Amino acid sequence: MSNEVHQRIDQLVKSNPVVLFMKGTAQFPMCGFSGRAMQILKACGASEITTVNVLEDEEIRQGIKDYANWPTIPQLYVNGEFVGGSDIMMEMYQAGELQEMLKA
Q1: What is the mean pLDDT of residues 3-22?
Q2: Which of 4, 85, 86, 99 is the most exposed place for a label (fewest CB within 10 A)?
């Protein structure tokens, strides 16, 4: 990943409280996992969600995998910290952990 791509991702992650790198948009998710991630965030009451459509930018699509050392998309970041993908989000939601994290 180029330094420029790393800086772009870093800027997005650190300047927005909740960032979801996903396939598609919040209104039109382009894969089931991205759709589920949005549903989980909405169920938690998250309103200020910044979404990044990785299908529109191949550098970001590849770069985000290197950034978190996580091979799949979607990827959720809360307050600059990598949380995980839709499976981890679901587990955290069911345990009540994601709701607490998003309130903080």
Answers
A1: 96
A2: 4
Does this model's pTM top 0.85? My answer is: yes
Question: How many CB atoms are closer than 10 A to CB 73?
Answer: 22
How many Å apart are CA 28 and CA 62, to the nearest integer? 21
Domain boundaries, the chain: 1-16+24-74
Q: Which 3-state string (H, E, C) describes the chain?
A: CCHHHHHHHHHHHHHCCEEEEECECCCCECCHHHHHHHHHHHHCCCCCCEEEEHHHCHHHHHHHHHHHCCCCCCEEEECCEEEECHHHHHHHHHHCHHHHHHHC
> What average pLDDT does range 1-20 have in this prediction?
95
pLDDT mean across residues, the chain: 95
Pairwise CA distance, residues 104 & 95, whole Å = 16
